[in-house]
Amino acid sequence: MLVASVPTIGRFMSSKSDVPAAAAATETLAWGESPALYVSYGMVADKGMRPALTSAVVAAPSFTVLSPPMGLDYFAVFDGGHLGAAAAVERLRVRLAAAISEQIDGELSSEAPRFGAAAPAHDVVVGWWKTVIQEAFRAVYEEVANDGEDAAVFGATAFVITLVLEKYTVIASSGDSKAVLCRDGEHVELTPAPDERRVRSSAYNEPPGVVIPELDVVAVERKAQDDEFLILANHGLWGAVPPASACAFVRRRLGKTSRITMPWEAPVDAARGSPAAVLAKELADKALYAGSEDNVSVAIVLFKDFWAQSANK
């Protein structure tokens, strides 16, 4: 059963590499000390006007054998879109992070990594992660098919996944769920528009007629001084609140553009517990108030400790 959830965490993570270059080394799990990077997050899944919740949010901080010393954090939003896809959403919620971890482990222990150093560094990163995530998705799909469940609903499941590394933020998406980065006050959409999506029939489509989406994967080089936060959400949010408005709202509540708090808004303060979770809930409520009739699932990942910064001013 899918339930609304608001997990949160404020933490420091470390990372040394974005994996592809390290995949060919035999001592990949013996890296040394590395810079500390602040990441905190908050999430919410609200059924909104729908009779049932068929979307989900997931966080798995430092979820692979790479951590420590490499801090690889996983965040995801899954959206079934209709009641028939609830089982697919639940399976992806429970299994996809582990399936990605298994693919990473396999690649790091392989004697013949699939990507070498000949290609440009960015292309290696994108190609490596696209293969890892697509193969993980395939593995979960095959589990569903082998269990005799209806795998056809996978083609109707929208999702957006984020992997946070030291040098890159990797985004994988399908359907109309998407990720938006706030960078130095500007919003940057990291996922293509739904009409630009590619859908293909592939060799592992079983039973016949099932369509598996080809995932859109991007790797965005991180800018420590400029990257403020990331919003992941399903269509329940984006169909009612444009990306620019969502980013402006979160920035205002973080005190980046105004210190004014409306009478109905609780102060967003790290001392009060989980500010990112408060912001995720407020953003979901904003979508419902704006007329969203869908489930609204939102994850906000903060790349800076805004409260420490304010105290130092």
TrEMBL record:
Keywords: Hydrolase, Protein phosphatase. GO terms for molecular function: protein serine/threonine phosphatase activity. Pfam families: PP2C. Its EC number is 3.1.3.16. Residues 40-303 form the PPM-type phosphatase domain. It is an enzyme of class 3 (hydrolase). It catalyses: O-phospho-L-threonyl-[protein] + H2O = L-threonyl-[protein] + phosphate; O-phospho-L-seryl-[protein] + H2O = L-seryl-[protein] + phosphate. PANTHER family: PROTEIN PHOSPHATASE. This is protein-serine/threonine phosphatase. It comes from Setaria viridis (Green bristlegrass). The lineage of its organism: Eukaryota, Viridiplantae, Streptophyta, Embryophyta, Tracheophyta.
